[in-house]
Specification:
- This protein has 248 residues and is of the alpha/beta class.
- 47% of the residues lie in helices and 15% in strands.
- It contains 7 helices and 7 strands; from the N terminus they run βαβαβαβαβαβααβ.
- It has helices spanning 18-29, 41-51, 63-73, 100-128, 150-170, 189-208, 218-229; strands at residues 9-13, 33-38, 54-57, 79-82, 131-136, 175-182, 240-243.
- Strands 3-2-1-4-5-6-7 form a 7-stranded parallel beta sheet, sandwiched between helices.
- Strand 4, helix 4 and strand 5 (131-136) form a beta-alpha-beta unit.
- Helix 1 crosses helix 7 (218-229), helix 3 (63-73) runs parallel beside helix 4 and helix 4 runs parallel beside helix 5.
- The longest helix has 29 residues, at 100-128.
Amino acid sequence: MQITFNGRVALVTGGAQGLGQAIAQGLKAAGATVHVADLDAEGVKRFASAQGMTAHVLDVSDRAAAHATVERVGARLDILVNAAGGVRGQVGRPIEEIGQSDWHAIFQANVDGAFWLAQAASPKMRAAGYGRIVNIASGAGLRPSLTGIQAYTSAKHALVGLTKQLSQDLGRYGITCNAVAPGFIRSNPASEKQWQGYGPEGQKRLVESIHTRRLGQPADIANAVLFLASDQASWISGEILSVNGGRN
């Protein structure tokens, strides 16, 4: 099976680091015209320039900015990958210590942004009778999180629900919506800090809890996204694909 995206236009958020970059590179290598967006202006511009992509500086939680970015992509948008999100610099803390702004910041990054961008992309996809939306969820969207961050777990569960609802709402127009739920991957400063915080014994326990006995790589997630975004996956929608090497 050969996956190609010749003639397709894709927008990938979270394009300044880690998973977003790997996904964008995979789409471009398979023939797509790729736009990348991120709040990190310097990082996303540097990456896009090096890769021959178009950069957009975007705070995904801003509805107006999300819609404007989709408009700047151009007349068509075939593939939307919502890879922005993360823990926004937070760490696991007792429930009593969580403030309103802490809670909302993680929901805005992980759920609000995915919704605003899907909302903006929907008219273009509906007009074309074709669209692929892939959300980057997490194993924390299916079970408690290794981070211990209550808002992150809740937001990723919400993103799983949004994925299923968008599938129902948009499927009749030729638009599929799926999510990838990655296992633990050292793909950005936050996950690297988490990894180092486990210490040697904790790192060993984590790896031994994975059936394949290895951590994942960004390319493992990118490969799953490319499949779900492909024509070969046209009858797959509303699904959450765990990509975690197996987990005990």
